[in-house]
Amino acid sequence: PRARPRLVFHTQLAHGSPTGRIEGFTNVKELYAKIAEVFDISPTEILFCTLNTHKVDMQKLLGGQIGLEDFIFAHVRGETKEVEVTKTEDALGLTITDNGAGYAFIKRIKEGSIINRLQTVCVGDSIEAINDHTIVGCRHYEVARMLRELPRAQPFTLRLVQPKKAFDMIGQRTRSSKSPGEGRVATGKETLRLRTQGPAVLEEGPSEEAAARRVDDLLESYMGIRDSEL
What is the pLDDT of residues 91-112, one digit of tens each? Predict the structure, then answer.
């Protein structure tokens, strides 16, 4: 039988560190444990990971799969801050996700919303407590429900933990400029798919030609269009 390939990934702490090498993980919790071991920190220090950029870029958030050439940046706990919010509308303007290991954090802030007017709240901030009630260990939909059920016109307190920032990110709410670490872009040829249960699976990603053919097939079946120049 063909030997299983040894999958080794490169990683850094997003605020700056030497490059480490990790392997042998099958889910997000094991991945965090491997990163923590390399950098001699606790796995609970890691808020989330991004791929191929050290920026707090939610478009590059590590999800359920990692390309074999992806570079993993771990964003760790920085400063804790508390902010008082008055719910003047039903919606706060937050999109919340979680890292699969116990931390829910802010993925998106709607422009013009209640939260958008609070400059101290940023994308990437982990929500640690609501009115001193800890939510560590809750899934993102549970946190969203708690916030949705808070009464209007009654102030409440959010305790947030922001990711530790590199020097070039200090004072920036969001930035999209590229950094040296962003040059390592995945080719998409092979992907390690992480699972909550069972081993991780190595998958062959579609080639550019195969992907183009799939788009052509969809256009033809739904719109009657098949144009190789599109």
Answer: 899 999 988 888 999 999 999 9
Radius of gyration of the chain (CA): 20
Nearest CA to 53 among 161, 187, 169? 169
Residues 6, 1: Cα–Cα separation, whole Å: 15
Contact predicate 153/86, CB 8 Å: yes
Q: Could you read off the pLDDT of 36-83 as tens digits, one per residue?
A: 999 999 999 999 999 999 999 999 998 777 888 899 999 999 999 999
Which CATH code, of 3.10.350.10, 2.30.42.10, 1.20.1530.20, 3.40.50.720, is assigned to 77-163?
A: 2.30.42.10
Pairing of strands 201-204, 190-193: antiparallel
d(CA 30, CA 45): 14
The residue extents of the domains of the chain are 8-76+187-223, 77-163
